[in-house]
Amino acid sequence: MLIAERPFPLAALFLAIGISCAANAAAAQERPAKPDEPATQDQPTPQDRAAATVPHDELGTLSLVVENDLFVDTDRHYTNGVRLSWLTPLGREPGVVKDAARLLPMFAEAQDIRVEFALGQSMFTPTDTARRIPDPADRPYAGWAYFNVGVVAETGRRLDQMSLGIGIVGPASLAEQTQKFVHDARSFNKPRGWDQQLKNEPTLQLTWQSNWRALVSGPLFMGLGFDATPHAGLAIGNVFDYVNGGVTLRFGQNLPDDFGPPRVEPSLPGSGFFKPTDSRFGWYLFAGVDGRAVARNMFLDGNTFRDSPDVDSKPFVGDLQLGFAVVIDDVRLAYTHVFRTKEFDGQNRADKFGAISISTRF
């Protein structure tokens, strides 16, 4: 567990600050200067505003996701994940990546193609982190640091995402140092079993997800609406091998064109991609389910070519997520609460954790 001791006040504070800042920014953009008031540095002229205006399709998106079990007051198993990503503006993607994507059937006809770069770190611990020799029947210590390059293509109501990532599992991921630093800074109990973590192993991971946005949708009243977005995908690599499928339901006001907030893999396939509506403000509640048929999970099955701690992983894993998102102008804030079924034999209860994300277009 990282960051803080009281999860929900922290989440509320984070979202309140973000909403307040975004609302103030939107209000400032709409506030006209008085006709008889000369322009100043704080009040740009209409010509300046016109020159600075960028069409929405030419904006890139920066997203930050923080997932942690502190939101449910636990400190075990999947305990922390952080992912920072940049989605390029339309028309400014690296040509070599776009040309390579055109060779694949799902991207051959897509007009709206963008490229995403992402950095991330995930960490896993057993239930009892006070033991120097962890329980061999519990999940082993493991850390993963990675860099992904992905292609995101929108074709009307369909979004295809494919990413190829390289990384490192083991001590070189610096997960041990990250957790101990934060625990020391916050006077939390020090985890003592990191010497038994998975060994260093380079990783190569390919992931594909496809979403069909608003396959079922409809307006309600007072700007309210709903939609259902099914998804399917697969992952191949020495970290994860699985196929998955599920659906996400949204209900809210002025629903933006998006596919749910971004998450850390493996998860329901959200995205940093979103397009605000003309109203500049929208919100929605969402619920989603995802089922995965898992052939391999390195964080349970152990290193590929070296002896390491391991447990017997379950072949089927499911996620249920509930949350809300707020979009103000070019900023989207979201909180997701995740319930995950048992992942290995002998696990005494299912896991749950929370995720906060912020995406901003500029």
Structure description:
The chain has 362 residues and is mainly β. It has a single domain (7-29, 59-349), classed as Lipocalin, CATH 2.40.128. 15% of the residues lie in helices and 44% in strands. It contains five helices and 15 strands.
Draw up the topology in text.
Blueprint: H1 7-30, H2 46-52, E1 61-68, E2 77-87, H3 95-102, E3 112-125, E4 142-155, E5 158-169, H4 175-185, E6 201-212, E7 216-219, E8 224-237, E9 240-253, E10 257-258, E11 274-275, E12 281-297, H5 298-301, E13 316-328, E14 331-340, E15 351-361
Antiparallel strand pairs: 1-2, 1-15, 2-3, 3-4, 4-5, 5-6, 6-8, 7-8, 8-9, 9-12, 10-11, 12-13, 13-14, 14-15
Biggest pleated sheet: 12 strands, antiparallel, barrel
By CATH, the superfamily comes out as: Outer membrane protein
Mean pLDDT: 85
- In CATH terms, what is the architecture? Beta Barrel
Q: In what range is the share of β-strand residues?
A: 35-45%
Find the CATH topology: Lipocalin
The residue fraction in helices comes out at 10-25%
The H-and-E topology, N to C, reads as HHEEHEEEHEEEEEEEHEEE
How many strand elements?
15
